[in-house]
Amino acid sequence: xKDLQSDVCRLALVQAEPLxxxxxxxxxxxxxxxxxxxxxxxxxVVFPELFIPGYPIGMNFGFSxxxxxxxxxxxxxxxxxxxxxxxxxxxxxxxxxxxxxxxYLSIGFSERDAVNGTLYNSNVIFEPDGSWKVHRKxxxxxxxxxxxxxxxxxxxxITETPWGPIGSLICWESYMPLARxxxxxxxxxxxxxxNTNDNPEWQATIQHIAIEGKCYFINADMLxxxxxxxxxxxxxxxxxxxxxxxxxxxxxxxxxxxxxxxEPVWDEExxxxxxxxxxxxxxxxxxxxxxGHYSRPDVLELxxxx
Length: 306
Description:
This protein has 7 helices and 14 strands. It has 306 residues and is an alpha/beta fold. The chain has a 6-stranded mixed beta sheet. It has a 6-stranded mixed beta sheet with strand order 6-7-8-9-12-13, with helices on one face. Strands 10-11 form a two-stranded antiparallel ribbon. Helix 1 packs parallel to helix 3 (89-101).
């Protein structure tokens, strides 16, 4: 890796289509893609939310108010079996890839707790020395709450890098102002946002956050097609009602001024490479630092329970 302080970060932002419900397939696709990113000189590789084993958009797993179905339970169990337990062999493969290619790797995954069996919508950042930090989504959105539990630990982990501290909030966590501030207070220079949000208004949100936090905003979305889903799920009628492209992507990089460093990519897989000028996050704080000189800690205070 570069020296402890580096003015440029070579980023590879991956907009890829997962192999839904297929843990081994998703892990192998991730490993192949990481190799391709490394060949392009990547030092930081970022994948979307729940890349392993994919985000099952449109499925309800048989839940309705006060009721469940056995068919839905079977699909949920299949998804649970495809989820990753931290430090299991699949997890280790990804950690070893970060070491092998000497890069930082961020990837979203469905985490199955090793003790209680609850699923969590999680994101992990692997480091070149083989260590890692996991962040669990604080509040799953909408009916996600029927599949994944609220985070019970790993709220705001920060990874120290040659380009300053980096951290992640998953998808709509970025609509939680206090959660954003918790990251700002830790001095992040790169804000990772693994998500599944292709709504046009999301683009305005991410530009605002980059300006507010004076950081690079890495908008990591995925491509999901109707054909991504296994053909033998019990929820086939739900899947049949989906459009051919279920999630269009829109992955991009926003600089600390709120400008597109890379334009959004729609409706296709892509590896989006960018060189981040890491002098900008500090330079942009000359007139506005939300947790520094442009704050009033005597009036407003955030208390974070780590």
